[in-house]
Write a structure and sequence with these properties.
The protein is α+β, with helices and mostly antiparallel strands. It contains 3 helices and 4 strands. β2 (36-52) and β3 form a beta hairpin.
Length: 115
């Protein structure tokens, strides 16, 4: 199994419930195919560097997971079929990126415990 990280942007016209429901749908696609979700983050509504489909903001989500390479094709097909998704990118993490992701998660975990 390889470790991957995917970031996807949802259209800004969705309600909070719709964004959570859509993110859950994509996590379910992963878990149904045997992927193990390591971390997920909802970054919220952010301004994009340039307009996409005449929209200048979008809801950003990050999901880290371990999966077989065939799962990526299924996930990206699901992204393409959903009109709520503006953009997506999936990256295979090498050993250095995995270490960095773990440090980042630990740092974020420490921040949330302080709050």
């Amino acid at each position: 199994m390889n470790q991957y990280e995917t970031v996807f942007i949802l259209t800004p016209v969705l309600s909070d419930d719709q964004t959570k429901e859509t993110a859950e749908k994509f996590k379910k696609v992963l878990t149904d195919k045997g992927a193990e979700i390591i971390n997920e983050e909802a970054w919220g509504l952010k301004k994009m560097a340039y307009a996409i489909q005449k929209k200048s903001t979008g809801f950003y989500f990050l999901v880290e997971f371990k999966a077989e390479p065939e799962v990526i094709k299924t996930l990206e097909t699901a992204f393409r079929r959903d009109e709520k998704v503006i953009r997506f990118q999936t990256v295979k993490l090498d050993k250095y990126a995995v270490e960095y992701a773990e440090k980042r998660r630990n740092k974020l975990g420490a921040k949330s415990e302080e709050a």
